[in-house]
Amino acid sequence: MNRREALGALAGLAALACEAAPADGPLTLWHAYRGGEAAGLEAAVARVTAAQPHLAVRLVSIPFDAFVNKVSVAVPNGNGPDLFLFAHDRVGDWAARNLLEPLEFWVDPALADRFFPRTLDALVYRGALYGLPLAFKTLALFRDTTLAPEAPATTDELAATARALRARDARIQGIAWELDSLYFHAPWLHGFGGQVYADDRDTLALDRPEAAASLAFVRRWLHDERLIPEEATSAVITGLFRQHRLAYVVSGPWFRGELAGLDTWAVSPLPVISETGRPAMPFLGVEAVMVSARSRRRRDAFALAQALVADDLAVLRWREGGQLPASRAVYEVPEVAADPIAGAFRRQVDATVALSNRPHMRRVWTPMQRALSRAIVRGEPPLAALAEARAAVERAAAEPDR
User: Fold this and answer.
1) In this structure, which CATH number among 3.40.630.10, 3.10.290.10, 3.40.190.10, 3.30.70.260 belongs to the domain 140-281+364-398?
2) What letter would DSSP give residue 266?
3) Residue (of 240, 247, 267, 244) closest to 256 by Cα position
4) How many Cβ atoms from other residues are within 10 Å of residue 209's Cβ?
5) Fold match between 3-137+284-354 and 140-281+364-398?
């Protein structure tokens, strides 16, 4: 055991020693799931409590739009849950405010090894682990198999197929995604060697040559080669794809819901960028179970968290809610392995970049949306648009939080 691990163990023991006597009643678990995801969680909790009655649970559904504020207000006042489920990108905010219990003291190597490493790394903030991964989301490449029977290995292959389709029928578009969204642009940003941050000190890398090259690449496909529809809203993309007028779509597992009744599609990992030899690497988002630092039953809360990420319950959540589990072994289960969505996204997860969980990241989205629109859609110089975005982020970061 090294010095950091020893200190972490001592801190964990101290926290347990100070923990109040277990309160009566069930553990409280907050979530923002709806529909199938909520049903999958309810079924998973029912299995846990049947096997371990001492882990009785009170499930509380919180509207997604209100969730962050509810946690931020309720937990410091002692009125929050014992544990909750949410996306990893808020970990930095909540950890900095001491709202989350560090979990590395409880997580042994055997437990950690069950998850895709990137999903666990996404939950680390300043050297501490603040959750257990339940599921992940990222982007991959959907294709119309009547137009593009084979998955392209490179962007050159993709573009060649798109050009051939346009030559055959001018109504057919090549590829589409939401052009002014950093989330959807991330595969090309990372594929060209760009990144949002240059280091761990919030130093931005938005206006570097690699990032500018990714914008120029997309702009060529949009304006010069006309491989991308000019109006690339979500509704337009879905409509074109369902009408067999769009060969490829960059989207996430949620796109499956738009394809009901359509069986002429397949999904594969995003291609390698031909200019760089790097894979297109989308952002990785992780749904996690986190323990409140104010819980009076942190030991039981962690026991419940560990139970909820069990492989059999991950399969249940996949079956009921279509979640992509963060547990590696789940993808060896025959029914999961046979699912085209699960198989493709399992391969994609190895070529992703975890969305930053630092508080600074929330200031990046809007300035980058403007930069993408200016450089890609309106054709302004990429470096100038990106430099303005960086300056806007830095101004926002210098302002006090309101």
Assistant:
1) 3.40.190.10
2) E
3) 267
4) 14
5) yes
Class of domain 3-137+284-354: alpha beta
Pairing mode, if any, of strands 283-291 and 353-354?
Answer: parallel
Q: Count the Cβ atoms, other than its own, within 10 Å of residue 384.
A: 14
CA 206/CA 190 separation, integer angstroms: 11
Tokens 């969505």 sit on residue: 341
How far lies 112's CA from each of 105, 108, 235, 327, in Å? 12, 6, 40, 10
Centre a 10 Å sphere on the Cβ of residue 288 and count the other Cβ atoms it contains.
27
> Would you say residue 11 has pLDDT above 50?
no
Burial class (CB in 10 A: 0-12, 13-18, 19+), 171: exposed
The pTM (predicted TM-score) of the whole model is 0.92
Domain residues of the chain, as ranges? 3-137+284-354, 140-281+364-398
The model's pLDDT over 84-127, given as tens digits with 9 standing for 90+, comes to 999 999 999 999 999 999 999 999 999 999 999 999 999 999 99
Residue 58's alpha-carbon distances to 30, 49, 72, 213, in angstroms, are 8, 11, 20, 51
- φ, ψ of residue 247 in degrees (nearest 5): -75, -45
In the block, residue with structure tokens 């890609």: 376
Query: How do residues 358-399 score in pLDDT, each as one tens digit?
Result: 999 999 999 999 999 999 999 999 999 999 999 999 999 888
Contact 120, 328 (CB under 8 A): no
- Residue 251: enclosing H or E segment and its boundaries? strand 246-251
The C-alpha torsion from 222 through 346 and 199 to 216, rounded to 10°, is: -10
CB-count exposure of residue 205 (10 Å: 0-12, 13-18, 19+): middle
Tell me the DSSP string of 173-209.
Answer: EEEE--TT-HHHHHHHHHHTT--SBSSTT--B-TTSH
Nearest CA among 191, 153, 158, 184 for reference residue 279:
191
Contact 192, 214 (CB under 8 A): yes
